[in-house]
């Protein structure tokens, strides 16, 4: 977990200590070994390739046998961990609203022939002008974004898609559950700006605005397909040098007639 100094109302170290204590409580078996393994992943000097190298990181005080035992026999209470992530200070837009981005990220596993439920994942540029399907695990990932030229994001949830799953349906249900956790954690209250949901190109934008009966959401499909029943609000001013039009959909009690044209940037 990382904290931006200007995004934390309390002392950053106290907030980080609180989260670490809550994360430790989510580890229900082999807690010490899993906790040190997590620290080793975060404190490693570079990308982690062989797992055994993590046992050489100073934060991991056990041998490589304890590392493999933690991965094989350790247990994490996932529901509690998700609630803990929903309660941390989150980055927000300039107007104070929450902006949640959903996308599919693939963990390619071409050589893991014994790994269950692999799916052919569409890849780009693995060969010269070739898009080759590669076996792997696709994950639906949701992050909180901030305004401005920054790469700062706060990952809030990740869900692996199983063979036969419809990505849009799974992500919509995942988004509904996440927003319910955010509301329960006090991240959104009545009178706050609508939560903005951002999806990527080629993604169908389903009825996400009704994901919670206590809050309002808007689905901003900058490059996505929207259903004909989606309600549009006025788009923002075109950005300098914008190459693609934007389509915007928002929640509302009114439903436009089918076939209503999309509102596009000029």
Structural key phrases:
single chain, 266 residues, alpha/beta, two-stranded antiparallel ribbon, 5 helices, globular, disordered C terminus
N-to-C SSE series?
A: HEHHEHEEEEHEEEEE
What's the end-to-end separation, in Å?
Answer: 41 Å
Cα-based radius of gyration, to the nearest Å: 21 Å
Helix share, percent = 10-25%
Uncertain parts: 221-225, 244-266
Q: What is the total number of structural domains?
A: 2
Number-wise, the strands total 11
Shape: globular
Which structural class is indicated by helix and strand composition? alpha/beta
Number of helices: 5
The average pLDDT is 77
How much strand?
15-25%
> What kind of sheet is the major sheet?
7 strands, mixed
Short description:
The protein has helices spanning 12-26, 31-43, 64-73, 78-86, 167-184; strands at residues 27-29, 75-76, 99-108, 119-122, 133-145, 153-160, 195-199, 204-205, 217-221, 225-226, 247-250. By secondary structure, it is α/β, with parallel strands linked by helices.
